[in-house]
Amino acid sequence: MSVSIFDSFLSLFFPNRCIACNRPLKQHEKYLCDSCLYDLPKTHFVSPTDNIIVKSFMGRVPVRFAYSFLHYTKHSAVQKILFNIKYFGAADFAVFMGEIFGQHLKNISFSDNFDYLLPVPLHPKKKKIRGYNQAEEIARGLSNILKIPVLTNAVTRTVFTQTQTHLSADERWQNVKGIFKIIRPNHLKNKHIIIIDDVLTTGATIESLSQTLLSRLKVTISILTLATAKGI
Asked: Considering the entire predicted model, what is its pTM?
């Protein structure tokens, strides 16, 4: 029995299923079926002059470029994707989604003189509990496609914060204010940094990280997130 026939035989009884719709995956599919992959709710917030993500940071952080790949809504395929990435130990899936995101950016002629992808750091204790930093894994996927290096050792998170899910915008800001520390400033000085995170809601965490960078260094900041809350 060949490997491919054996794999097909196993899939009849132990099928890999689409993370979004739970249908069995075909042999060429990975994590998401073709239908769900095609139907992902893309934002298309890419215009540099009329960009709702950039506008959401106006008066808070000077952002050169910002883009969120997908719209996030409750009880949606994107919520299932983010939940699996964040809580089900799906680090490889996070890399996969980063690669899908990266390919999308290439298709829309994404280009600029970026130096590093900087994933929003997790507190070391939380990273140990989870086993990985989902923003870091998304950044690795992006890096595989865009060929921009990932920087993971220049900034650390010094405070173990509570979950932000049920906090108001002001409470979220208070929860993350001053929680980051630059430990290798020479890696960042005069660089164009793309901050990477999984989902953008109020932007409080990215704002806190950006302000920490800008308070000490001359840097240019751009932002990429896998998803954004619809209607931000």
From this structure: 0.88
